[in-house]
């Protein structure tokens, strides 16, 4: 296997995550798409580490897994708080910041 | 030879799981597809000789994060009418692909021009628990400690955010 296959795969996964963030309105799916983008970066880091034979990349990837865990905890708490506030998990219902004024 | 067969099978599961996640209409099916993709990603780490990352991915990403997400999805138990209908899902996904394609093309071009076409030779101990641990505590001690602070802050933040919603 050449490194390029792994790099292409990681980039493609990042792209799929980006499409999910852009196109979906369900907050849970948006959250999982962000996780997917982080995991794609994780795959790229592991590949770079293997290409150079340097374990620093693997350690960085390990630390990134911890960051993903922290992000998951915050995001899930946020989804629950948003659902309690508006009884909705539709991203189109949370647009206060893009409106000129609001009651 | 067998390595490349394993790679293509795992890639199929990875791409299929990721695509299934962003196209499924039922939230729990999205989560199940995402779990499939993360297990396949752990396999990719094993294929890259990163045996410790393989374990960490299985234990933390699959065993903790996705299980927690699924638990939240089923326990919040949002009734059908609060879930967005997304009537133009196909059109939205197509628009997303059009926006994401140039970015992906740019990254692929950059990676193609800058990275070696072959893997460096590695020692037998590459990626094992002992070897990663030695590197972690030799030159990555400060980031490691900072990550523990970040996790603590995220934990407290999660508790505070979900309690604030309860009071109002």
Strand percentage of chain A: under 5%
Q: Low-confidence segments of chain A, ≥5 residues, pLDDT <50?
A: none
Structure annotation, total helices of chain B: 6
Order of helices and strands of chain B: HHHHHH
The number of E-state strands of chain B comes to 0
SS summary, helix count of chain A:
3
What's the N-to-C terminus distance of chain A?
59 Å
* Low-confidence runs of at least 5 consecutive residues of chain B: none
What's the average pLDDT of chain A? 90
Structural class of chain B: mainly alpha
Radius of gyration of chain B: 20 Å
Number of strands of chain A: 0
Q: What's the CATH topology label of the largest domain in chain B?
A: Four Helix Bundle (Hemerythrin (Met), subunit A)
Q: For the record, what CATH class of the largest domain in chain B applies?
A: Mainly Alpha
Q: How much helical structure, as a percent, in the residues of chain A?
A: over 70%
Overview of this protein structure:
The complex is a heterodimer of chains A (103) and B (168). Chain A has helices at residues 3-23, 27-52, 56-86. With 103 residues, chain A is mainly alpha-helical. Chain A contains three helices and no strands. In chain A, 76% of the residues lie in helices and 0% in strands. The mean pLDDT of chain A is 90. Chain B is mainly α and 168 residues long. Chain B folds into two domains: 2-118, Up-down Bundle (Four Helix Bundle (Hemerythrin (Met), subunit A)); 125-168. Chain B contains six helices and no strands. Chain B has helices at residues 2-23, 27-47, 51-76, 89-114, 129-139, 141-167. In chain B, helix 1 runs antiparallel to helix 2 and helix 2 (27-47) runs antiparallel to helix 3. The mean pLDDT of chain B is 89. At the A-B interface, helix 1, helix 2 and helix 3 of A face helix 1, helix 2, helix 3, helix 4 and helix 5 of B.
Key words describing this protein structure:
heterodimer, A: 103 residues, mainly alpha, 3 helices, 76% helix, B: 168 residues, Four Helix Bundle (Hemerythrin (Met), subunit A), 2 domains, 6 helices, 79% helix
């Amino acid at each position: 296997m050449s490194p390029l296959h792994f790099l292409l795969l990681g980039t493609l996964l990042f792209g799929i995550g980006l499409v999910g963030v852009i196109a979906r309105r369900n907050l849970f799916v948006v959250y999982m798409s962000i996780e997917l983008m982080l995991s794609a970066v994780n795959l790229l880091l592991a590949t770079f580490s293997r290409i150079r034979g340097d374990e620093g990349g693997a350690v960085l990837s390990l630390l990134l897994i911890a960051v993903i865990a922290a992000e998951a905890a915050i995001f899930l708490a946020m989804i629950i708080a948003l659902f309690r506030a508006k009884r909705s998990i539709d991203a189109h219902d949370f647009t206060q910041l893009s409106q000129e004024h609001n009651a | 030879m067998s390595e490349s067969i394993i790679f293509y099978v795992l890639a199929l599961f990875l791409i299929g799981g990721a695509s299934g996640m962003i196209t499924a209409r039922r939230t729990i099916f999205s989560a199940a597809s995402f779990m499939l993709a993360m297990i396949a990603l752990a396999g990719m780490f094993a294929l890259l000789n990163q045996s410790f990352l393989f374990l960490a991915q299985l234990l933390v990403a699959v065993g903790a994060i996705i299980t927690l997400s699924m638990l939240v999805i089923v326990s919040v138990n949002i009734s059908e009418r609060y879930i967005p209908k997304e009537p133009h899902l196909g059109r939205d996904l197509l628009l997303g692909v059009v926006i994401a394609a140039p970015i992906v093309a740019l990254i692929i071009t950059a990676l193609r021009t800058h990275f070696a076409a072959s893997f460096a030779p590695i020692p037998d101990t590459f990626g094992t628990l002992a070897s990663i641990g030695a590197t972690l505590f030799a030159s990555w001690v400060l980031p490691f400690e900072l990550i523990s602070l970040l996790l603590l802050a995220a934990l407290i933040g999660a508790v505070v955010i979900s309690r604030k919603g309860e009071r109002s």
